[in-house]
Design a protein that fits this description.
The chain has about 180 residues and is an alpha+beta fold. About 35% of the residues lie in helices and about 25% in strands. The strands form two sheets. The chain has a four-stranded antiparallel sheet. A four-stranded antiparallel sheet has the order 6-7-5-8. Helix 3 packs across helix 6. The model has no long low-confidence stretch (mean pLDDT about 95).
Length: about 180
């Protein structure tokens, strides 16, 4: 079976007192027989090759291994480079001011219509939200620290784990790995 490239977005890496060196993180992924393991910035982004057909089963295998090795739960969200390119290109807020910041929250599955409405209802004068497929987009019109909203509140509204990345990071991953994809 041919290998596929995956990008893993990990929750709870190098935040909240959970520090993991990138060399250690690479070793943990290599122990699972994943190939060409790389990390991208120290926020829990791991790129690797593996001949998996079932990405969700692979997510669960990685989560189990990381929990056993690190001693705490690490939600894992896999995407292919092509999926990341689509996420990076998607424009949920086409008229967003240049000084605002767009974050992408990765999810294991698409939320229901009811959950999407609940998330949209979390809008504040500073924050806007939009769910598309397995991602939630969070537009912050000021500094993130000025927002009354938080990642924990977003997870509560979603009813499921998520991990957030700045759209700039997502675009860099798309640029770097889409061209390299087998």
């Amino acid at each position: 079976m041919p290998t596929r490239k995956f990008i893993a977005f990990l929750r709870a890496i190098n935040v909240g007192g959970h520090t993991v060196k990138m060399d250690r993180l690479r070793q943990l992924f290599e122990a699972l027989k994943l190939g060409n393991v790389e990390t991208f910035i120290a926020s829990g982004n791991v790129i690797f090759d593996f001949p998996a057909k079932d990405a969700r089963a692979l997510e669960l295998k990685i989560e189990s291994h990381l929990k056993e090795s690190l001693g705490y739960a690490v939600s894992t969200f896999l995407r292919t480079p092509e999926e990341i390119a689509r996420v990076a290109a998607y424009q949920p807020f086409p008229a967003a001011p240049e000084d605002s910041t767009l974050f992408v929250g990765f999810l294991a599955s698409s939320p229901s219509t009811e959950v999407q409405a609940k998330v949209a209802g979390c809008r504040t004068p500073i924050d806007e939200f939009h769910v598309h497929d397995r991602e939630v987009y969070w537009l912050c019109h000021k500094r993130f620290s000025d927002s009354p909203f938080s990642g924990a509140k977003l997870e509560k509204a979603l009813g499921m784990p998520t991990t957030l990345r700045n759209l700039t990071t997502v675009k860099k991953l798309a640029e770097k790995y889409t061209a390299k994809s087998p």
